[in-house]
């Protein structure tokens, strides 16, 4: 094994690139050129990106697409989506068009509460701890006032602080389970700062609390951190129309199609293997909007999948039924999103994505994002229960295959035309391209 590098973070960007290129790549000069070719032409903008993280070498592009014609609660949106997977934007756009002529998407924010916890150990009498926390409550609120003042002015702040006895899970384990309203901010910094202040206050108050009889360290704070599980920061998106209006361009009648859609959803409610893929399809839409709007997709992913497991079994996030001749298809997801703070003002593309969406509030962004998830799920299921996904997917994938093979614009045009009437597969495209290049 070679020696570890020392002081890498203090290298200049050029030194880091050179070191990585030489140490780990077969063609160092080509690596350097590649990394530099992805730098922004404007050095100030490149510096902005460099400073988002540490040890930046270059930028990593994702396509930014847009799915137009989303009627959400009677307002028309074009939804920006940052995603590398072909078919996702096309499927979202197709669903938007389909539902746009059937009343559009209806959404409802079911809550905006976020959660954070101070985790601690205590081995004494639980009633003494309970009395201590009650006595410390005014100090907890007062000593965090400097942090909460601005948020309160915007209508947010601390909503609840409760002691939770978790000894059944872990000996001596308690937590201060706290709820917050963070308005248009995702709120991670606000919540974590409040929690760390709570921890400091608790330790200080504990030292002088008479019930603890001067014990050296009656409680041991372990950590203070927000939770990405936000079941009370949740949104519902719904579409519905008479079953008869579901007639598809694939020739399936509305009733058969509705029955097959509902069965597909029921399978995802019953079987975790299918549920994971079903929900992945939903996340295709959700993540693309979350990334385009500069939100934390890891937080959203973790929270959404935990929510899908809330019954103890991993299940579908979407549901479907027929009620009085009306087909209903809906989705409920927890989404902690922000439209201020974080990257929202800093990243030019994020700023633009938010502008395209009409600079939404955080609850509006929850509605738009859930809609993208539902549209995506509808698109995937409607293909799966009719013609299958490969036909459309491989059509979209055709360009990727052609690019991978270095096809010229003329070759692309000819082959796109050819594959309008032929089945796309990697080998069929390669074969056809070969034939085009060597007609003999
Ligand atoms: C592919 O990215 C997503 C799907 O697999 C979703 C699904 O199966 O429902 C098509």
TrEMBL record:
Signal peptide: none annotated. This is 3-hydroxy-3-methylglutaryl coenzyme A reductase. GO terms for biological process: coenzyme A metabolic process. InterPro entries: HMG_CoA_Rdtase, HMG_CoA_Rdtase_bac-typ, HMG_CoA_Rdtase_cat_sf, HMG_CoA_Rdtase_CS, HMG_CoA_Rdtase_NAD(P)-bd_sf, HMG_CoA_Rdtase_sub-bd_dom_sf. One of its GO terms (molecular function) is hydroxymethylglutaryl-CoA reductase (NADPH) activity. It catalyses: (R)-mevalonate + 2 NAD(+) + CoA = (3S)-3-hydroxy-3-methylglutaryl-CoA + 2 NADH + 2 H(+). SUPFAM superfamilies: NAD-binding domain of HMG-CoA reductase, Substrate-binding domain of HMG-CoA reductase.
